[in-house]
UniProtKB/TrEMBL annotation:
Tree of life domain: Eukaryota
Entry-linked CDD domains: CH_SPTB-like_rpt1
UniProt organism field: Macrostomum lignano
Record key words, sorted: Actin-binding, Repeat
Protein name stated in the entry: Spectrin beta chain
Residues covered by the Calponin-homology (CH) domain: 66-170, 206-248
Listed Pfam families: CH
Length: 248
């Protein structure tokens, strides 16, 4: 009986002890909750940063595509104007293949097959395919591009096709123009530069950029305070633009 009473005393109600335990539990719960909130806030901030970055990249890509479309449209109209063609929407008006055929005729001077009459999809596919076949015969590499891509108005591939045509045919005229320049106008261009420019190991895009840069150097040679070294800060003062306009 005495032993049972001792055991009962050892387990009797102790409010102070329970209160201290409850405080400890509450403190632990609060700490865990604060840590969870901080983690959640960090995740939210990271997500917001990623969404902003993605939206910014998308906006820049759309802006770049719009600039390319506008530039390529102006370039194309320069070459098809003599056929009484005028393109306003590049993606829409290349679908029937007729403008594309006239563009290649204007650039090359060759006589391409007559376009198929009709406005059905099959007629458009035939006309675009005629242009693509001609490009293939001219050893123009068309990777992952079919007539249906142009007929369907695929923006990326349509821009890619026009850029490929520019690389293939415009660069030849630039090379010929460079080679025909008098020796005194070529004094700012070294033989090493020209040799590197025509090196067959260069990619088409790099070769086209170098050709255009070399052409600009040729045209602006001899003008005071004009030194074209790149396509960025060499044009900021406007003197290079004025020199090219004056030359032509």
């Amino acid at each position: 009986m005495v032993e049972l009473q001792d055991n009962y005393r050892s387990i009797h109600w102790n409010p102070e002890l329970l209160a201290s335990r409850d405080t400890g539990f509450a403190s632990a719960d609060f700490s865990e909750q604060a840590e969870h909130q901080a983690y959640h806030q960090l995740q939210t901030e990271n997500l917001s940063a990623k969404l902003y970055e993605r939206s910014r990249i998308k906006a820049l890509a759309e802006e770049r595509e719009a600039v390319q479309k506008k530039t390529f449209t102006k370039w194309l109209n320069l070459h098809v104007a003599r056929f009484d063609f005028y393109v306003q929407d590049l993606y829409l008006e290349l679908r029937d293949g007729k403008v594309l055929l006239k563009l290649l005729e204007s650039l090359t001077g060759d006589r391409l097959p007559r376009p198929t009459r009709g406005r059905m999809r099959i007629h458009c596919l035939e006309n675009v395919d005629k242009s693509l076949c001609y490009l293939t015969e001219q050893c123009v590499h068309l990777e992952n591009l079919g007539a249906h891509d142009i007929v369907d108005g695929n923006a990326r591939l349509t821009l890619g096709l026009i850029w490929t045509i520019i690389l293939r045919f415009q660069i030849q005229s630039v090379l010929e123009d460079v080679q025909e320049q008098p020796e005194d106008e070529c004094r700012s261009v070294t033989l090493t530069t020209l040799a590197e420019f025509v090196a067959p190991s260069q990619s088409d895009s790099r070769q086209a950029k170098d050709a255009l840069l070399l052409w600009c150097q040729m045209k602006t040679a001899g003008y005071a305070n004009v030194n074209v070294r790149n396509f960025t800060n060499s044009w900021q003062d406007g003197l290079a633009f004025n020199a090219i306009i004056h030359r032509h």
